[in-house]
Design brief:
Residues 1-10 have a biased composition (Basic and acidic residues). InterPro entries: Methyltransf_16 (IPR019410), SAM-dependent_MTases_sf (IPR029063). Residues 313-322 have a biased composition (Acidic residues). Keywords: Methyltransferase, S-adenosyl-L-methionine, Transferase. The protein is α/β, with parallel strands linked by helices and 595 residues long. It has 3 domains: 7-296, 3-Layer(aba) Sandwich (Rossmann fold), CATH 3.40.50; 300-333; 345-593, Rossmann fold (3-Layer(aba) Sandwich), CATH 3.40.50. Helices cover 39% and strands 21% of the residues. The strands form 5 sheets. It has a 7-stranded mixed sheet, sandwiched between helices. It has a 7-stranded mixed sheet with strand order 18-17-16-19-20-22-21, with helices on both faces. Strands 3-4-5 form a 3-stranded antiparallel sheet. Helix 4 (123-147) packs antiparallel against helix 5 and helix 4 (123-147) packs parallel to helix 6. It is globular and about 70 Å long.
Length: 595
């Protein structure tokens, strides 16, 4: 069998010097906790397979919702979490891991203090911790091998020295993220570094821009490296992210930031980033870039900030002029839309929602015109059709991170937020909105008390409110801010009953927070809520709690995993159910409580 080698400064460890290392590694891999991948399934590491070339696309395999990577000559098992975007592996994380692994001399993490912002699954932190160990371990073995040439030291002694080295070196890594993702982050970091590093990586909560000097005073917390990969995705907090980078990037600190450009705001943040720090581009591969940055002197900061303010004032003036022109253009396009709709006549049904090209907050006259056209056209009851585009693929226009939909005779502007799965538009919500809008006689919510579980962006709540219901939208506390903004923006002055927004944790002390003697609803709505498979029992308990005699539960779901089918089976056992609509993997159920 060929013995793999570990390279350091162009030298190669001899066969004898790594035999015991390989035996120990083999023993670790043979233990394989919780159904991890077998040794014979192992693939080459990115460094072995592609040399030092850059590529974020690496070989991995999925086992029981776990993914296996090879970096720092170690197998790394990462469990993703479907409850938030932070629980997923993003391209920039793979890119920065590969760069750190293939440039160990240029970026030497041995015995360095390293902080990761937005650690997510923890892959980058794990690799940083393991690289700190591996590089020095290889160096120690080489030194001992040189000293023992011609002296007659046995291999056992060499391996013993290597074992000691492995236990007494490494990087000091702190992985940070929002409190809601720390459980999965901690599990991944612990699973992959336990017994492999001298300094156990730490996991800590960090809210960008929030009271940083109190929670992380610069007099105490100083780092050699700050790492950040694909953290530019929550576009409501880019200023806070930049402030956090500035807070931790002190003299002597090197900031490494990897990002894949997706939106215009990414380019704006990149521009601000380059103005704030001394930067150099380490890697560029299409839209994916890795920057290295250091802080600027205070005098430079003053000059830069003055120039920056002048540019911002100039840009604001230009934006105002563009907005004025844009509004005039939209008025013209709205007139064309009104004529086109009037000529077309009747509604085309659930599978072809009306295309809207105007933003309701900016142009109320357009809203009145479209509403008049809708009244003339009428709404016919319909069901999901097997042919044509599915109902959850609406005609929408994305405008600066906002999507515009048309239901219940109104433009509905939805601001998504990519920090949580609950703040992104899902197919089940679109299907349910279309069904409610096109089947008003079958499901008449006018004047009814309606509760939505897992409201997310709030689209279903908004549609139900516009159809005349008194709605309470519920979700986890961390998504309520965006939910409230969407609901208020789209219902203010349009509805008889002002929608309410409230926090609700499934299965948690429900009889205390929502006693059945007080909280009774005519309808309970839920769309695409079966995605966090660790809480399906709690979800079912919550549905049972609110689905009392006289309550109708309407649940829309797109089947993605086997767990969805199991939940569907339990759902049908728990309630009296009927299938309202079915289109491929999308189903809408109506349910009532059993006696």
């Amino acid at each position: 069998m060929d013995i793999p080698t570990f390279e350091d400064k162009g030298n190669v460890i001899g066969k004898e010097g790594v035999e015991e290392e390989l035996e120990k590694k083999k023993e670790r891999e043979d233990e394989n906790e919780d159904g991890e991948v077998r040794e014979e399934e192992k693939v080459e590491s990115p460094g072995q397979k592609q040399g030092t070339g850059f590529s974020p696309h690496i070989g991995f395999f999925n086992s029981l919702q776990r993914e296996v990577y090879y970096y720092a000559d170690e197998k790394i098992v990462i469990e993703e979490g479907l409850d938030s975007f932070a629980g997923m592996i993003w391209p920039a994380a793979l890119a920065v891991c590969h760069h750190l692994d293939s440039h160990r001399q240029e970026i030497n993490l041995v015995d360095k203090a390293v902080l990761e912002l937005g650690a997510g699954t923890g892959l980058v932190s794990v690799v940083a911790a393991l690289l700190g160990k591996r590089l020095l371990a290889s160096s120690c073995v080489l030194q001992v091998e040189e000293l023992t040439v011609g002296v007659g030291v046995e291999v056992d002694s060499l391996c013993s020295f290597e074992s000691v080295s492995l236990n007494h070196i490494g990087a000091w890594v702190t992985a940070t993220d929002l409190p809601v993702v720390l459980n999965n982050l901690t599990a991944n970091v612990s699973r992959n570094t336990r017994g492999r590093c001298r300094h156990t990586p730490q996991v800590a909560a960090l809210v960008w821009g929030h009271d940083l000097e109190t929670t992380y005073p610069t007099s105490v917390y100083r780092y050699d490296y700050v790492l950040a990969a694909d953290v530019v995705y929550h576009h409501d907090f880019l200023n806070e992210l930049l402030d956090t980078m500035k807070h931790f990037c002190r003299p002597g600190t090197t900031l490494i930031w990897a990002n894949k450009v997706r939106f215009e705001t990414d380019l704006k943040f990149m521009e601000d980033f380059q103005k704030t720090f001394h930067t150099s581009l380490l890697v560029e591969d299409g839209e994916l870039k890795i920057f290295m940055a250091t802080c600027k002197d205070e005098e430079e900061d003053v000059v830069e900030s003055e120039l920056w303010r002048e540019e911002e004032v100039k840009e604001e003036d230009e934006d105002e002029e563009e907005t004025k022109q844009h509004t005039e253009e939209e008025l013209d396009s709205a007139e064309e839309l009104r004529i086109s709709e009037a000529q077309r006549g009747g509604d085309e049904g659930l599978n072809e929602p009306d295309e809207i090209t105007t933003e309701c907050d900016e142009c109320k006259e357009d809203e009145q015109e479209v509403a008049e056209v809708t009244e003339q056209a009428g709404c016919q009851p319909t069901v999901l059709q097997p042919s044509g585009d599915p109902a959850w693929v609406p005609s929408t226009r994305n405008s600066f991170g906002k999507d515009i939909y048309h239901y219940a005779g109104h433009d509905i502007v939805i601001q998504e937020s990519i920090d949580y799965f609950g703040a992104v538009m899902w197919p089940g919500a679109l299907a349910l909105c279309s069904f409610l809008d096109n089947n008003r006689q079958m499901v008449d919510v006018r004047g009814k008390e309606v509760l939505e579980l897992g409201a997310g962006t709030g689209l279903v709540t908004i549609v139900a409110s516009l159809l005349g219901a008194s709605v309470t939208a519920t979700d986890l506390p961390e998504v309520l801010s965006n939910l409230k903004a969407n609901v208020m923006r789209n219902t203010r002055g349009r509805c008889r009953h002002t929608p309410q927004v409230a926090a609700l944790i499934w299965g948690h002390d429900l009889e205390t927070t929502y006693p059945t003697s007080v909280y009774r609803y005519d309808y309970v709505l839920a769309a695409d809520v079966v995605y966090h498979h660790d809480f399906l029992n709690e979800l079912l308990d919550t549905m049972k709690h609110f689905c009392r005699p006289g309550t109708t539960l309407i649940w829309a779901n797109k089947v993605r995993f086997e767990g969805d089918l199991k939940f569907m089976e339990d759902f049908q056992k728990t309630f009296h159910t009927s299938l309202l609509a079915e289109d491929g993997d999308m189903r809408i159920f109506m349910a009532t409580g059993r006696e």
